């Protein structure tokens, strides 16, 4: 059914603006929609597969005949009210039923076609006859011919080079078991390096299920990430120097140190990309470049080098260290203490290293030192999954291993056990466009999964509703929440889907580094103005309100004292703070006079007022992170406006934001102990994982590839774009059965273009009008 009543208003979907669809959907959930014929309650279906339509809430009632177009109700809809169904139509838009130009075409989902046909390869199913492989098989753990070779070879130096889902982790785990059980290697002499600590514990967990593997043996294995292993070495050697209380954990802290240094050096804060500078310093350190080794190229690197020097001085004087220092510190320690190095070399004789494509120079050099007396090294990696080069990782270490290890034996794994043929072909097609890579092609073992789907929401809000509908349908049909992952390029993209999940009854979890969208710096600033408007005495808004009014944080105390003294609100006290410069006084007085009115206007308009009239835009330019490459304050403002546009009042929006901040804390806590939940996460964090159903948000230019990569590409640097393509490849290859990629028409309130990475997937196929 294409028509309904929203309270007393008539909705004909054909003429209803798509930006209002999510509101109609909400209205249906709240019981505000009724059938235009029988007046029974209806809900609004807004999913991926079928066109949006109304359905009776009671599933036993069949669809009704629609009312004719020229009925009384339809005529009512022609009056073009300013507020319609609680939704404001753009003034220029007519909702007249006669105006066919205004027809609201639905773009059907596109099932990726033109993929190479599936060919069943007999080799895929052959399992090896090696006795160890046979033993594993008897215990339900199969290895194919290639995997078995990688597990049982006597090669001293072994590289397992393989595509996604080809069983690299399975091989690494089996090879560890082979060394322990077949070769009777002392577990204490094995070092097993994984990319995440979770992967290390998962591998240990898999090992416990192998025949003859006791927990005491596994406890003796030396496992962990490079960082964890290096830190353990440092702590063993000098626990005071490396005490965790001295660790600089967050980029925010680094940025603070760099901003002070920048002002001392006269670097213009407004223009400078502090996030890129933090990355650059990390890159130099991971490349083992001391400040004196750096030969800067261009203005940015010159400034970054000066800041690098200052940053190192700061840590020295304040007795601090950061994560990069754990690596460089370990390298220096091992180089400077031959006895210590020798002790480690004598202890560890067997090395197994996963995700080797993401190794950086300092890690490689430490690995070279530690493995000097090694009897066996197994490197595992996939250059197509190298996604950390922005922080100094370099897959050429993997690809050039033969130079340092001339007897290196390479085993290629080509069979993909994880995904259906159409997903594997889609991934092959995406990654084949990269110029810098080793040529390899994955082949799937079955063709039972449907083709990946591109779907076309109007915006971020509709994207999240469509995904939710699809997930709920699948769960009703027997899927488990843990079958699903919703992946995105950057955390800021998760706002809308988080909000939908938060108000649903579905269990979901987030990455360990997740933080609420409403805790972002610029968003908190905007919220402070809105909160002040609702309650000028709310002390919780003061801290975030002061910086955009150019007041120091210490002004909190002054404001509190003045409000008591003058018997006025905290907000009213601000212009009376002593020592204000004329421009400050003017800004504050204007703000105070306008803030009070914000609560009476629509939240998105209120935000616009804060931005333009109350100087928030200028503040962001001066003090924000507008020079940043990744997270720009102005982008956060665009996002917050999209979020606010769902609400009719400032109060409702502020309440919602407060609720979401509390929810994100709660969900984060729950995430640690919630195994049967929908996973919400960045693509970076999804590496090594797999899910039956994967949804990819924002497959549009600017999101994927990210704006920063597009900028680099325009300046002639292809590397970031290739890395973005690898990210998409990683995301696509997480899906076992079904993959959905969202190509929204709008992003941050502006028209968006489909990602260049998926454009070629549609070649030769009809592209529906957008
Ligand atoms: N020989 C095999 N028989 C059956 N299933 C297998 C086999 N090898 C691997 N698998 C399954 O295929 C999936 C992918 O394996 P694994 O995670 O080891 O791949 P990977 O190469 O490490 O993947 P990625 O690099 O994409 O993270 C897992 O579900 C694993 O259990």
TrEMBL record:
Domain UvrD-like helicase ATP-binding: 141-420
Keyword Protease: no
InterPro entries named among the record's database cross-references: DExx_box_DNA_helicase_dom_sf (IPR013986), DNA_helicase_UvrD-like_C (IPR014017), DNA_helicase_UvrD/REP (IPR000212), P-loop_NTPase (IPR027417), UvrD-like_ATP-bd (IPR014016)
Keywords in alphabetical order: ATP-binding, DNA-binding, Helicase, Hydrolase, Isomerase, Nucleotide-binding
Domain called UvrD-like helicase C-terminal: residue spans: 421-688
Provenance organism: Pradoshia eiseniae
Phylogenetic placement of the source organism: Bacteria, Bacillati, Bacillota, Bacilli, Bacillales
EC number annotated for this UniProt entry: 5.6.2.4
One GO location term (cellular component): DNA helicase complex
UniProt-annotated stretches for the region Disordered: 65-85
Protein name: DNA 3'-5' helicase
């Amino acid at each position: 059914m294409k028509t309904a009543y929203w309270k007393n208003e008539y909705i004909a979907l054909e003429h209803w603006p798509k930006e209002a669809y999510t509101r109609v959907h909400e209205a249906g959930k709240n019981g505000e929609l009724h059938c235009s014929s029988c007046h029974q309650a209806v809900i609004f279906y807004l999913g991926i597969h079928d066109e949006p339509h109304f359905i009776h809430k009671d599933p036993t009632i069949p669809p009704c005949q629609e009312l004719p177009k020229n009925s009384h109700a339809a005529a009512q809809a022609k009056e073009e009210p300013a507020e319609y169904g609680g939704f404001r139509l753009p003034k220029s838009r007519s909702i007249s039923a006669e105006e066919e130009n205004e027809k609201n075409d639905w773009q059907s989902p596109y099932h990726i076609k033109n993929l190479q046909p599936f060919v069943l390869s007999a080799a895929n199913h052959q399992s090896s006859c090696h006795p160890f492989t046979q033993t594993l098989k008897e215990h339900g753990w199969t290895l194919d011919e290639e995997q078995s070779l990688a597990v049982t070879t006597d090669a001293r130096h072994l590289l397992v080079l393989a595509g996604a889902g080809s069983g690299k982790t399975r091989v690494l785990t089996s090879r560890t078991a082979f060394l322990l059980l077949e070769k009777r290697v002392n577990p204490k002499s094995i070092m097993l390096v994984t990319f995440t600590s979770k992967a290390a514990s998962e591998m240990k967990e898999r090992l416990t299920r192998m025949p003859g593997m006791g927990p005491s043996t596994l406890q003796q294995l030396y496992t962990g990430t490079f960082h964890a292993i290096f830190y353990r070495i440092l702590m063993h050697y000098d626990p005071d120097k490396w005490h965790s209380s001295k660790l600089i954990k967050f980029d925010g802290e680094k940025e603070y140190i760099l901003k002070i240094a920048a002002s001392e050096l006269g670097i213009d804060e407004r223009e400078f990309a502090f996030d890129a500078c933090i990355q650059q310093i990390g890159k130099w350190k991971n490349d083992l470049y001391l400040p004196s080794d750096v030969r800067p190229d261009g203005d940015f690197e010159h400034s970054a080098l000066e800041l690098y020097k200052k940053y190192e001085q700061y840590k020295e004087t304040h007795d601090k260290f950061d994560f990069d220092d754990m690596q460089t510190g370990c390298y220096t320690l091992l180089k400077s203490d031959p006895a210590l190095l020798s002790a480690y070399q004598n202890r560890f004789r067997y090395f197994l290293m996963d995700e080797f494509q993401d190794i950086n120079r300092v890690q490689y050099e430490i690995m070279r030192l530690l493995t000097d007396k090694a009897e066996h090294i197994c490197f595992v990696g996939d250059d197509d999954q190298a996604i950390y080069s922005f922080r100094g990782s370099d897959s050429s270490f993997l690809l050039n291993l033969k130079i340092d290890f001339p007897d290196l034996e390479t085993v290629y794994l080509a069979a993909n056990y994880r995904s259906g043929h159409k997903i594997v072909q889609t991934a092959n097609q995406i990654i084949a466009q990269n110029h810098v890579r080793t040529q390899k092609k994955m082949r799937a073992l079955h063709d039972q999964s449907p083709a990946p789907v591109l779907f076309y929401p109007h915006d971020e809000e509709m994207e999240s509703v469509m995904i939710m509908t699809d997930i709920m349908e699948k769960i009703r049909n027997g899927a488990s929440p843990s079958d699903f992952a919703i992946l995105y390029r950057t955390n800021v993209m998760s706002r809308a889907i988080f909000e939908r999940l938060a108000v649903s009854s579905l269990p979901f979890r987030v990455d360990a580094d997740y933080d609420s969208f409403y805790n972002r710096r610029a968003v908190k600033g905007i919220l402070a103005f809105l909160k002040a408007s609702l309650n000028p005495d709310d002390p919780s808004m003061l801290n975030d309100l002061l910086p955009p009014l150019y007041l120091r944080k210490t002004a909190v105390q002054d404001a509190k004292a003045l409000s008591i003294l003058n018997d006025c609100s905290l907000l009213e006290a601000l212009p009376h703070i002593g020592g204000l410069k004329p421009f400050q006084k003017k800004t504050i007085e204007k703000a105070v006079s306008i803030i009070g009115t914000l609560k009476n206007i629509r939240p998105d308009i209120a935000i616009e007022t804060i931005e333009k009239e109350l100087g928030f835009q200028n503040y962001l330019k001066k003090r924000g992170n507008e020079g940043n490459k990744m997270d720009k304050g102005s982008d956060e403002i665009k996002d917050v406006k999209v979020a606010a546009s769902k609400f009719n009042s400032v109060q409702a929006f502020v309440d919602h934001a407060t609720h979401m901040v509390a929810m994100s804390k709660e969900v984060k806590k729950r995430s640690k102990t919630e195994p049967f939940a929908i996973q919400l996460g960045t693509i970076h964090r999804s590496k090594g994982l797999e899910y039956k159903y994967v949804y990819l948000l924002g497959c549009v230019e600017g999101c994927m590839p990210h704006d920063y990569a597009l900028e680099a590409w325009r300046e002639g640097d292809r590397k970031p774009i290739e890395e973005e393509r690898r990210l998409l490849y990683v995301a696509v290859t997480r899906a076992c059965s079904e993959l959905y990629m969202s190509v929204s028409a709008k992003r941050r309130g502006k028209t968006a273009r489909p990602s260049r990475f998926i454009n070629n997937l549609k070649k030769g196929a009809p592209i529906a009008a957008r």
